[in-house]
Amino acid sequence: MFVLPEGLPLELTPFAFLVGKWEGTGVISYKINNTDDDPVEKEFKQRVEFAHDGSNALTYVSSAELIDEAGTILPSEIGYWTIARPAEAADHGPGLIIGSGEKSIKTHEDLEKLSNPEGGFDIQVSVLHPGGVAELYNGKIKGARVDLASAHGVAFENAKTYRHSARMYGLVEGALLWVWEIALPGEDLKPHASARLERVE
User: Where in this chain does the record put each THAP4-like heme-binding domain (predicted)?
Assistant: First the structure.
């Protein structure tokens, strides 16, 4: 039986199945310069944590490394997952400005007013990469499935970038499965990586 994580803010209850620490393995697959050569394929292990600090955002941290003799470290990710809704006076920011007034989401009924026509919720996800790239995703969460598509991105001039990205997360028989597709410049979306993670905390 699933139990809501202790202290989870009401606004984050659609993300409840994600909260915790996850570990597992996956496969990276990509082609270089869109050639007819077979794709490069590498196995990796990953650790992901979804957590909350009482605010209206779920925090996301991912670290990964290749399963090879060197234990090659792969780029990490940090980010924030939120329900898509207009900012209100009670929200903190910009910067460290403290919000004022009461939050609009105080009951489950208030939260349900934000549900989309499919019966889930529209969400927004921001992800920061150490290579100087920041991504903003729009998406949907329904039950134990998340679908994301990149909406905007910014990068330093010397960063390695891609044109578009889509991700899917789902809970299957207690395991968190995810798939990531990217479109390199001048190309369409193609499979990039996937993994199966088991809850460890």
Answer: 11-199
The torsion angles phi and psi of 98, rounded to 5 degrees, stand at: -85, 135
CB 11 within 8 A of CB 111: yes
HSE-CB of 18 using CA atoms within 13 angstroms? 29
Cα(108)–Cα(57) distance, integer angstroms: 17
pLDDT tens digits, one per residue of 5-49: 788 999 999 999 999 999 999 999 877 666 667 778 999 999 999
Asked whether residue 189 is domain-assigned, the answer is yes
**For residues 26 and 66, what is the distance between their CA atoms, to the nearest angstrom?**
9
How far is residue 18's CA from residue 190's CA, in Å, rounded to a whole number?
A: 25
Sign, CA dihedral 35-39-45-47, equals: positive
Distance (Å, whole) CA 44 – CA 199? 17
Report the predicted TM-score, pTM, of the whole model to 2 decimal places: 0.92
CA distance linking residue 92 with residue 104, whole number of Å: 14
Is position 174 within any domain? yes
Q: How far is 121 from 142, CA to CA, in rounded Å?
A: 6
Q: Is residue 105 part of a domain?
A: yes
Instruction: Name every residue whose Cβ is closer than 8 Å to that of residue 30 and which is 6 or more positions away in sequence.
Output: 39, 40, 190, 192
